[in-house]
Amino acid sequence: RLPAACRPRSAGGGGVLRPDPAIAAGLAWAGGALALGVLALVLGFGGPGWWGRAGWRRGLLFGIAAAALIAPWAIRNSLVLGRPAFIENSLGYNLFVGYHPQGNGGFVARVGLIPTRFMDDGERDRWTFEQALGFIRADPGRALALLPQRLAYLVGIEARELTFFYSSNLFGPIPTLPLVAAFLWLVLPWLAIAATAPFGLAAAGDRPGRNLVLLLVAATVLAYVPVLAEPRFHIPLVPFLAPYAATVWLHPGRLLPSGFPGSRRGYALAVATLLILTVLWTWDGARQAPRLISVLSPGGNSLRLDY
């Protein structure tokens, strides 16, 4: 038998042999933030509230664990860039591509290739950042007009799997009907999730999980829309939005005012979100229509379109 001091305590009193969940949470968050810098914004928005609920001790353990994993990378970035830096070291590059006069606010391959002549990360970051500021100062009106375009890109359909890979003749010619079916199989799940998740989130009430998802959505919009946006950037949101969308699929009546279990304000916000998404999807669909039609037509597999 172990001495009493070495035995694991009950779940209510913590455990001597079990690490504190705050440490595991800090390591998990830091690992996710290293892969997706948006999570740093999520912590910045919600951190004070979460620390207030968890207490200073758990908040301190969380911070120490996260810093232990992130600090080496942040130090490396600061040394390479010659200025204080955190997780991201490509802000200058993304701003350059996002505001370049020959670009459209998203990723344009011919623009993205320009800074690749710099082999040094620090030199490339300084040059691209200065160039991007010059683009913004030269035409601030265009810089503002790019913001709604980027929002449309962020929530839009990711058709590049079709327009680039199929048009590069990687699969040979495919009849139009199966090709259209494959395209719909790729894009419809996102449209269904994004259209119904607002109703599920509004019906969930003021819960920590719901609030965390809303913070993640807000951080994603604020991180990408002012800089550079692409449809693929919404992919990390899918597993968080899908459960709320599923609650609506299981209870379709929640799409109607009479069957919605939440407040009228929540329902109104969900409807407004759906209307905004519909406008953005319509604009993005019209923008991509000529390219998609050419790819879906006979001979589309040999168009060799740019990425």
Layout of helices and strands:
Elements: H1 21-35, H2 38-54, H3 56-81, H4 91-99, H5 109-112, H6 121-138, H7 140-155, H8 160-166, H9 176-203, H10 208-224, H11 238-250, H12 264-296
Helix pairs in contact: 1-3, 2-3, 2-10, 4-6, 6-7, 7-12, 9-11, 9-12
Quick overview of this protein structure:
The chain has helices at 21-35, 38-54, 56-81, 91-99, 109-112, 121-138, 140-155, 160-166, 176-203, 208-224, 238-250, 264-296. By secondary structure, the chain is mostly helical.
Give a written overview of the molecule.
This protein is mainly α and about 300 residues long. About 65% of the residues lie in helices and about 0% in strands. The chain contains twelve helices and no strands. Helix 7 crosses helix 12 and helix 9 packs antiparallel against helix 12.
What attributes does this structure have?
disordered N terminus; 307 residues; globular; mainly alpha; single chain
Which consecutive residue ranges, at least 5 long each, have pLDDT under 50? 1-17
Series of H and E elements: HHHHHHHHHHHH
Helix content, binned percent: 55-70%
The general outline is globular
On the 0 to 100 scale, the average pLDDT is 87
How much of the sequence lies in strands comes to under 5%
Radius of gyration: 23 Å
How many β-strands, per DSSP?
0
Biggest sheet layout:
none
User: Kindly, what is the distance between the CA atoms of the first and last residues, rounded to a whole number of angstroms?
Assistant: 65 Å
> How many helices does DSSP assign?
12
Secondary-structure-based class equals mainly alpha
